[in-house]
Design brief:
The protein has 18 helices and 14 strands. Strand 13, helix 18 and strand 14 form a beta-alpha-beta unit. It has an eight-stranded mixed beta sheet, with helices on both faces. With 455 residues, it is α/β, with parallel strands linked by helices. It is elongated. It binds nicotinamide-adenine-dinucleotide. Nicotinamide-adenine-dinucleotide binds next to helix 1 and helix 4.
Length: 455
């Protein structure tokens, strides 16, 4: 099929490259000229494991452009809208990128049938709204009403940054919502190789042995839109539940890791997303839970469980600073080293990263903050040079003379640091392990004061 993907961020680029790898002809469009220039040189503008390899494998089926005019909208079978939907100050999503792209698409529609798909996470009702934008833009340009030449679908994305290629090639489910059955048929055909898992896997990312087919959920537009928000809210609640319990375990002398293992082995609960720590970050959970709370207000209802998950999460970031204050008494003039800056390992993304809030609070209290990260320092220097954090490519440079070390992101390489050597460069051997990730026993044996979350 011929596919246009609008927006080449973490979602759009992964989707476009994966569909091209599966044999579709794909055009990826973005208004960011720098990103498209990099992609036209065969380079990935974001850090995502496996992405450069898949771009190379798919290169004969994919083109990159900044121009709606040269994107051949009127020959496409499917157009994905995969632009950003960041939060506005009141928590509702900023839909200006969706609006701009829907209008640009609508102006260029002609009489051949195309399915326009919301892959961006958008609030309930956005499918109808995008339909109206397409119709109005078409009418303004052509002077007539479009007759049946497009259908709008919702196809929410569940990929995880850091394993986006794996999640896209081997998804746990595909959700398609539409009122027009033609849209469901077209998208089912588009995804057939994924649903049947009968494509040949890239050598660097083999298919999991147990995977033989992917379930598909087809439903109406509003249900598909809500599935995405409900999934992210539920995962956020699980993490915040572990963090709420961690507050109690640390008071009563229990260990949150054992408690969560003990409940997670119950198959009704499951072990994943029950790791206590400094909470979630990233571009989705905070934004999507805020949007859900904001949408519920529009309908005159409240979402106290989702709101509580948010409150617990943002409190966890304060916990780091409170712990350092309790241990060091005075933060003014101290050096705090942050190990990891990205919101999670295997990504360079800093959107809503806990590191940013922690650094801001420490700096406000007069501390010096030194940070390191294997891949996120490019973005840190580019977008957060004003923050006042000293960024170091080498962990040992960030750790020099530090009064405390905070493990912010659980990059595997931090577990393997020469912790005996690290101790010799620190001013004070205090570790606050914000992810319960480091080897507590070994560090204690080496003479560190080790503080984990809820242990
Ligand atoms: N990042 C994730 O892990 C993830 C997972 C699932 C769903 N989502 C959702 O997918 C959507 C995209 O997320 P992302 O992380 O890929 O965002 P992103 O910010 O990385 O990418 C968005 C891209 O859209 C481009 N863009 C903006 N306006 C445009 C326009 N008018 N025309 C063409 N391109 C335009 C931007 O330049 C940018 O490159 C969001 O709604 C997000 O909530 C994200």
């Amino acid at each position: 099929m011929k596919v246009l993907v609008v927006g080449t961020g973490y979602v759009g680029l992964t989707t476009g490259v994966a569909l091209a790898y599966l044999g579709h002809r794909v055009v990826c469009l973005d208004v960011d000229e720098e990103k498209i220039a990099l992609l036209n040189e065969g380079k990935a503008p974001i850090y995502e494991p496996g992405l450069p390899e898949l771009i190379a494998l798919a290169k004969n089926n994919i083109q990159f452009t900044t121009s709606y005019d040269s994107s051949e909208i009127n020959t496409c079978d499917v157009i994905f809208i995969a632009v950003g939907t960041p939060s506005l100050p009141d928590g509702s999503p900023d839909l200006s990128q969706v609006k701009a792209s829907a209008e640009a698409i609508g102006e260029r529609l002609d009489d051949h049938f195309v399915v326009v798909v919301n892959k961006s996470t958008v609030p309930i009702g956005s499918g109808n709204w995008v339909g109206t934008l397409l119709r109005e833009a078409y009418r303004l340009r052509k002077g007539t009403k479009p007759i049946g030449n497009y259908a709008v679908a919702s196809n929410p994305e569940f990929l995880r940054q850091g394993s986006a290629i794996f999640d896209t090639l081997y998804p746990e489910r595909i959700v398609i919502g539409a009122e027009d059955t033609r849209a469901i048929d077209v998208l089912t055909n588009l995804y057939r190789p994924l649903l049947n898992q009968d494509f040949s896997s890239p050598a660097f990312l083999p298919r999991p042995e147990e995977l033989s087919a992917v379930p598909i959920v087809t439903c109406d537009l509003a249900s598909a839109e809500l599935i995405k928000y409900a999934a992210n809210a539920f995962l956020s609640i699980k993490i915040s539940f572990a963090n709420e319990m961690a507050r109690l375990t640390s008071k009563v002398g229990a260990d949150i890791v054992d408690v969560m293992q003990g409940i997670g082995l119950d198959s009704r609960i499951g072990p994943r997303f029950l790791q206590a720590g400094i909470g979630w970050g990233g571009s989705c959970f905070g934004k999507d839970t805020a949007a859900l709370v904001s949408t519920s207000k529009e309908y005159g209802i409240t979402m106290p469980i989702v709101q509580a998950a948010r409150d617990v999460n943002y409190h966890q970031r304060l916990w780091v600073v409170d712990t350092l204050l309790r241990e060091l008494k005075i933060l003014k003039g101290r050096t705090i080293a942050l190990l990891g800056f990205a919101f999670k390992p295997n990504t360079d993304d800093l959107r809503d990263a806990p590191s940013l809030d922690i650094a801001r609070q420490l700096l406000q209290k007069g501390a010096r903050v030194a940070a390191t990260d294997p891949v996120a320092l490019g973005n840190a220097r580019r977008f957060y040079s004003e923050l006042g954090v000293a960024y170091f490519d080498e962990p040992m440079d960030a750790l020099q003379d530090a009064d405390a070390v905070v493990l912010v992101t659980e990059w595997p390489e931090y577990r393997k640091l020469d912790w005996a050597g690290v101790k010799s460069v620190l001013a004070n051997p205090l570790i606050v392990d914000g992810r319960n990730f480091l080897d507590h026993d070994e560090l204690t044996r080496l003479g560190y004061r080790y503080i984990g979350v809820g242990r």
